[in-house]
Specification:
homodimer, alpha+beta, 2 domains, nine-stranded mixed sheet, six-stranded antiparallel sheet
Chain lengths: 286, 286
Amino acid sequence: MTTTMTESIWLNGDIMPLAEARIGVEDRGFQFADGIYEVIRLYNGKPFTLDAHLRRLQKSARDIQLPLPIELADLQNEIAKFLTRAPLRDGMIYLQLTRGSAPRSHAFPQCKPTLLFYVRVLPPIPEPPAAEGVKLLTVPDERWKRCWIKSVALLPNVLAKNQALAAGADEAVFIDNDLVTECSSSNVFAVIGQHLITHPVGSKVLPGITRQVLLELAPKLGLNVDERPFSEEEARRADEIFITSATREISWAARWNDRRVGQGRCGPITLKLHSALRQKIARETA
Amino acid sequence: MTTTMTESIWLNGDIMPLAEARIGVEDRGFQFADGIYEVIRLYNGKPFTLDAHLRRLQKSARDIQLPLPIELADLQNEIAKFLTRAPLRDGMIYLQLTRGSAPRSHAFPQCKPTLLFYVRVLPPIPEPPAAEGVKLLTVPDERWKRCWIKSVALLPNVLAKNQALAAGADEAVFIDNDLVTECSSSNVFAVIGQHLITHPVGSKVLPGITRQVLLELAPKLGLNVDERPFSEEEARRADEIFITSATREISWAARWNDRRVGQGRCGPITLKLHSALRQKIARETA
């Protein structure tokens, strides 16, 4: 199997083909989900909002008491050098940090963390409104209460996503005590009138970077930002619903379970926000 | 580094030194905690309650929609053959099954699961009452709601255990809405009079195998088994508290946060249960 430069990986300082990269079976990422990760978009060969992703990585690391094995500035340099070797224009960086490999025990071991990142091509994202709207399926939010940590303990998210797929939907929306929190791998927003509503980050909501970018862009577009819990009933009468993530940018929702969302097409405020996001991306990755 | 026979591993049908065993970085066990595990005690070279562990593995697999890549009877044979090659008398088998390796995506991939098991020597367990009592620290139960699945998404357990260790305790007891559920890597029992009390298995409690063995032994010892939720207040006035797991068997609790448990020594009912457990172990692994 040939390995292109776009399929190489940086693993603890060494660069090798992704297919040849291996970790030990006693890596705590494998046995305990004792690790964190980031997914960063590349546009025009440049990582978008890299600073914000690395700051979030730092916070996740602190919140699981995992000292970063490298200064953020040095990590940023390693990523830049790697991207020079692997000149990918449009895609993503997947980065993961675990507590490393040690004989299995819940107690934190003395060992060297495992740090790796690699790049992947992403298929071009259809622009709204051309893109088909996503179908959302609500599922009970049965996840743990520290969802602000971007950890690899993603089994609950995997199960929710696959429950949605099995039901013919595209993404699962978590409902926690009748409140809409987030999706299995994206944040969710409701638009009612000129109000942009999304659940605050915290125990049940990851501080999504695309989410944060939109919250900063929205007031400049004349929108009122309501960062507050909202009920499923409120979501059902929203004019527009959309979900966001680094890899999907903004996807408008066409269905909420068996109901049409709003007018059943990509709404004007979703479009306006997407256009503002694209402009920011173009400015920062020119 | 020399590798003894006790440090070898069965990995997808191949046997190799544990230190040389590697998995790909895109194994879903590493990126998504998309896997399950078992820890089985070996006494006298024989796995104790292996059937029960394999049935639980089968149930965990079903509950995360992961088809077992091998019939249980064949797996049992592979374990038996492996134990002949790696003649360990007292220790444990660690077994893990993940959905396998595939390009990262929450959607279930079409790929071959990763199955492995290896053995480890365990230090001899001091017999109660000689053993020192464990100190328990209560922590809020912030885990997900499918704790009956023995998944590798153990980060919440790891954080709880290390919170206990940092506070000078030995194990963390999860408290869910004032109810005592289980510990970070063990089940917990309270003894009040002739009553043995433990929270039912389910969303917050793993069906521990040692737990189940004790629930079956208890009535034969004249104890009343109360499998029901119990409050922290009830635990605080218990005559005896103990915790159980495959590797620790039964550990009596000396402290509950800053309070002494019962008389501050290993209680008579804990001793009686431990003695019955040891007799069963001796019978079944002679």
